[in-house]
Structures are given as structure tokens and as C-alpha cells.
Input
Amino acid sequence: MADITRYPFARHLRSTPTTHVIHHRRGKLAHTGTGQAFWFRPLSATLSELPVDDRELPLLLHARTADFVDVTVQATVTFRIADPDLAATRVDFSLDPATGRWRAAPLQQIAGLLTETAQQHVLDVLAGLPLLQALTDGVALTRERITAGLLADSRLAHTGLALVDARVVAVRPDPDVEKALGTPTRERLQTEADGATAQRRALAVERERAISENELQSKIELARREEQLVAQRGANQRRGVEDAAAADAVRTTAEAEREERLAQAHAAARRAQGEADAAAEAARLAAVAGTPPEVLLTLALREFAGQLPDVGTLVLTPDVVTGALARLVRP
Output
């Protein structure tokens, strides 16, 4: 808005570069243009201020499709005042000289004009489309129709307005209808999700079964190897017993043979000793053959004495010595 400074008997107005100010003094044009700054008398001046920058107007339009379903169109229209002098004659943009504010609501009047015009074009487009087509193609069709209709609207041109851009964000039905339309898709997605869950569970069960089978096979293989180990241990023990028995047999045979050889050697030695003793005895007997009995007795006593134990003291009585000497001198 323009800045109006109050002084005694006069006022000073200063506008911005985005506002167009029109000043009439006593019915005649005194100032017009953007970025104006001038003095004026409030009793003789008429002021109008028009914004010339681009203005955004959000629109929420309602329409009905060919199958009688209500939809909502969310759009935005960008416009500007292209001919401020013309617009000032069609819409009330006059300012209060004391406050610098609009006496009316010109922008709301322009917004109403644009909304009603866009609403008519939206109704024309969506009335000939079924709901599904309106939801899929309605954004592009309504945007094109709103743009073409506002550009061709003579009332807007006669008001000094120009369309900059028109955008349609969404075409949506009522929440209940939208939920009903999304139900098949949600059901399909839920079915796919359930199928994926079932497949994942089946895969998990299959993996568990494979793991159980692997564990069972491992246990069977372990039992088989334990059986082989027990059998091998038994065979090793039997082989050890057999080897020990064979070793014992060999050792027994060797000892028997050794004992037999020792017995044979002892027998041979005894035979040789007997033969030697017999030969010695025969030689001794041959040596004493023809020897007198007294000599033989003496030899016998000597030999007997050699076989007697040691005698510490020998007592000879006269009788024994006399008898022995008598037998020695006897012829």
C-alpha cells in the first residue's frame, strides 16, 4: 500500500514500484504511474492504487462427472493487472486519503471473477468425462481448458486483467469414493503381500526342512562312522589278540625247543660224564688189579677219609693203633 504522510492542509503520497497510482485533482488527471510521490489536498484529490505485480490465486473448484460423482479440482491461477487505467474504471481501487487504504475490496472482486470463470470451464470439461477418466486425464484437460478460457475471456480483457499462468494440482473425488476406488488396488496389493508372505514362509519352511534333513544326514553319517570306528577297533583288538597269541605260540615253541635242546645237551653231557666216569673207574680198577688187600684197604680208607667232613680232633686209642699195626705187619 502507498504511504500517506499527513501535514497541515496537505498530504504526501509515496508508492512502490509494484503499485500503479492514479491521482485526479478536481476531476482531472494529475498523476498516473508506478513509483509515484507527490503532494495532494485531501478535499480535492481522488486517489486509486492498483497492484501491477503477479498475483497468485488458489482455487478449490467443485464439479460433477458424467457418472454423477462429485470431484474437487485444486488449481492456482497467476494473473496481473495489465492495463491499470482501464482496470481503475471497471473496479473500485480508490484509496481513503486519510488512511491510504482501499475503500472497497477490489482484489476480492477480481478473485471472485476469476474463480467463477474458471469454475465454468472446469464444469464444462468434467461434465463430459466419466470418473476414472476425470481422475486420470482431468488434470491436463482442466489446465488446458482453464488457460484457454481465461485467455479468451473478453470480460477479463475489458477489465484490464491478463492471465500469466494456470496450474491444476489435483482432481480428487470425495474421500469415501476415493477410498472405494483404491480398494481393488489395496486388495490386490494386500493379496500380493499375502502371497509374498506365504511364499516367504514356505521358503522358510523349506529351508528349515533342508536344515533338518542335513542334520539328520549328518547324524546318520556320524552314526555310520561310529559303527565303522567300533568295528575297526574290534578288528584291531582281534588282530592284537591274534598277534599276541601268535607271539606267545612262537615264544612257547622257541622255549620248548630251547628246553629240548638243553635237555638233550644235559643228557649228552651226563652220558659223556658217565662214560668218562666209567672209563676212569675201569682204569682205576685195572690199576689196582693184583694189589694186596691191605693196600686196597688203605686206599679205600684214604678215599673214604676224603669224603668225610672235616675232623677237628681225632682220638686214637691204643687198641685201635695196635690192631691196625698188627694187620699191617701181618704176612
Q: What stands out?
A: The helical segments are 84-90, 106-126, 131-152, 154-159, 175-288, 293-307, 318-329.
